[in-house]
Design brief:
4 domains; 32% helix; 5 helices; conserved putative lor/sdh protein from methanococcus maripaludis s2 fold; Elongation Factor Tu (Ef-tu), domain 3; 6-stranded mixed β-sheet; OB fold (Dihydrolipoamide Acetyltransferase, E2P); single chain; alpha+beta; 6-stranded antiparallel β-barrel
């Protein structure tokens, strides 16, 4: 028999089974590796997809700033123009017809009550007084004679020497003489008072702010103004408050008065009198302000600005003007609910204070109000909410209180 090498012979059955088994394990291992890799890849892709979707939603979700409403009674600074007046002012006129013979006080002089300012000469009036005095003397003589005659006739009547009718006639003559005497006395008294009016005296203590006549000027009773006298130690201001602020004015309230000529100083006055009604012609309420002027820094007739700090009498909420949504419908405000979803709440507006607005109803001071809401903001839309920084909120509030200055046109009522 021919000898054959062992390696040329076919392997035995046990060796072939072992090789096939190893190959199967290797295939299973590869399949497992592929399955695990596919599962890991699927998990990774799913995680990335969810993360992408979450980021996309976050990017698409709006971000808004919100604030809270502040309590009402905001102090509102109002500036109104006015004119200074003397506490008491009087234009002195002549009560007698004549010409000015002398004047003793002139512009800027301070005078006391009853002090002589000027003298008027009235020749015709002096002659009338002399004539009236002579008529009085004549009437007195007649009255004395009538009285004596009546007394004598009374005695004669007691003796029945005259009739009762004759006695009554004498009594009538005495009554007539008494009446004529009273008329003559009244005429003399009137002319004497006119003589007293020749002397122009100060009705109160003050300063002469104008003189209208010179020596020799012919003056007529009640027609020619001689002097204008004013008390300047204390001044007054007659001010007309517009109706929108009329209920905020209180008697005893202090106000600040400023002049353009004195920039670095203000003066404090007090509201002394407040009208009980609003003038229907001007829709304003008159108040009178008293202003001390002991140093004479302020001059009557000067134009001033009166600054009043007014407090709204309504119990309201104050919100920034930027939270309002104004359109065809009624005004509304975007509010954040507990889930940070948008709700549009109609409100009733009060006064427009410039950077802030009064809200009379519709919201509370606990509602979160969206600042500057977008026009595309939708009802029940989920948003990211962030409260406005306190620094900006305080700055806005301070700016509102400082700049909320309502300057109205000249509402001072003309003086006739």
């Amino acid at each position: 028999m021919t000898n054959i090498d062992n390696h040329l012979l076919a392997p035995s059955a046990p060796d072939s089974a072992l090789t096939l088994k190893r190959f199967s394990w290797i295939c299973l291992l590869l399949v497992a590796i592929l399955l695990i890799g596919g599962l890991l890849r699927f998990t990774l892709n799913t995680t990335e997809a969810f993360a992408l979707e979450s980021r996309t939603k976050e990017n698409l979700q709006r971000s808004v700033n919100f604030t809270y409403a502040k309590p009402g009674n905001l102090v509102n600074n109002v500036t109104l123009p006015a004119t200074l007046r003397g506490y008491s002012e009087a234009v002195l006129y002549a009560r007698s017809n004549g010409y000015l013979s002398a004047w003793y006080k002139t512009l800027g002089d301070k005078v006391k009550k009853g002090e002589l300012l000027a003298q008027i000469e009235t020749p015709e009036q002096t002659q009338e007084l002399a004539q009236a005095q002579a008529s009085l003397d004549l009437v007195q003589a007649r009255q004395a004679l009538a009285k004596l005659t009546q007394e004598r006739w009374e005695l004669l009547r007691q003796r029945e020497s005259v009739t009762q009718q004759d006695l009554e006639e004498k009594r009538s003559l005495l009554a007539q003489a008494n009446a004529e005497l009273e008329v003559a006395k009244t005429t003399v008294k009137r002319l004497q008072q006119l003589e007293d009016y020749r002397s122009i005296t100060a009705p109160f203590s003050g300063t002469i702010i104008s003189r209208h006549v010179d020596l020799g000027t012919l003056v007529t009773s009640g027609s020619n103004a001689l002097f204008t006298l004013a008390q300047t130690e204390k001044l007054r201001i007659s001010l007309w408050i517009p109706q929108v602020y009329a209920t905020s004015i209180k008697q005893g309230q202090q106000v600040q008065i400023t002049l353009n000529e004195i920039q670095d100083k203000s003066f404090t006055g007090t509201i002394a009198h407040v009208s009980g009604a609003i003038d229907p012609a001007t829709r304003s309420r008159q108040v009178e302000i008293l202003l001390p002027n002991p140093l004479g820094e302020l001059i009557p007739g000067a134009f001033v600005d009166v600054n009043l700090d007014l407090v709204s009498s309504l119990k309201t909420l104050i919100v920034p003007a930027g939270v309002l949504i104004l359109g065809k419908n009624e005004p509304s405000i975007a509010i954040l609910n507990a889930d940070n979803k948008i709700e549009f709440q109609p409100v009733r507006l009060g006064r427009d204070l410039g950077k802030t607005v009064e809200i009379l109803s519709g919201i509370t001071n606990k509602d979160r109000l969206v600042i500057n809401p977008s026009d595309s903001l939708q009802e029940n839309e989920q948003v990211l909410a962030q409260e406005a920084p306190p620094q900006e909120d305080k700055k806005q509030e301070k700016s509102t209180n400082k700049n909320n200055k309502a300057t109205t046109p000249n509402t001072e009522k003309p003086r006739s």
